[in-house]
Amino acid sequence: MTEAAYDRIGVGYTKARRTDPRIAAKIVEALGNARSVLNVGAGTGSYEPTDREVTAVEPSTEMISQRPIGTAPVVQASAEALPFEDDSFDAAMAIISDHHWRDRPAGLREMARVARLRVLLVNADPSLALEFWLTRDYLPGFADLIPERYRHKGQWREELEGFLGEVDMQPVPVPHDCLDGFYQAYWRRPSAYCDERVRHGISVFHRLHAGEVTDAMERLQRDLGDGSWNERNARLLDLPELDVGLRLVIAELSG
């Protein structure tokens, strides 16, 4: 098996990335009556429900090594070639992971193939990337990482429905004190992005040019110091949660 991206960037992943119970509750609710669940791109086991029969799939040896004792059994494989028979699980889910797949359409087809009842995804709508203040004001190069086919509103849904059928796409507001350290998690805690340990757990910072990241963090620190960040983002300071583009996608399979 070829080296997975997180074999290089996943060292120490669990220091910044873990389950937020409020997001987890939405995932469990969306799984509905599914008793057997395949977690695709499972990483270190975040968001795997403890009240279901879960099987994890993860390509990275480094991430597998960080899975705590007692988590679901894991198979080292890629989303694009799931080593299971058709209809092997009630549900297949991928939580903030499908943007790492080498072939997203192939992964979606595979999830629909092995699931009997539903497919569940959680990820950010790529067409909304520039609406997040960190991207808009400091890291506009993030937009260049988004494939052209996802840059306009509705295109992500259109692709999902092409492989999964009709989907229900629900906003997942992110709490101001979110425990998981994904890219948008610190929307009300901007100084966190200046911490290299926080950035290490966010794949975007590994993909951007180092010079752009350094410049962005210097400008962010300066804006925090002189109050200009607070002035521009005053409306955020008292919000308990915010829609930063994270979406829960549910596809009910007709069989």
Q: What is the H/E string?
A: HHEEHEEHEHHEEHHHHEE
Fraction of residues in helices? 25-40%
Number of strands: 9
Question: Unreliable segments (pLDDT under 50, ≥5 consecutive)?
Answer: none
Question: What can you tell me about this protein's structure?
Answer:
By secondary structure, the chain is of the alpha/beta class. It has one domain (5-252): Vaccinia Virus protein VP39 (Rossmann fold), CATH 3.40.50.150. The chain contains ten helices and nine strands. The strands form two sheets. A seven-stranded mixed β-sheet has the order 3-2-1-4-5-9-6, with helices on both faces. It has a two-stranded antiparallel ribbon with strand order 7-8. α4 packs across α6. The radius of gyration is 18 Å and the shape is globular.
In short:
By secondary structure, the chain is α/β, with parallel strands linked by helices. It is built from 10 helices and 9 strands. Helix 4 links the parallel strand 4 and strand 5 (115-124).
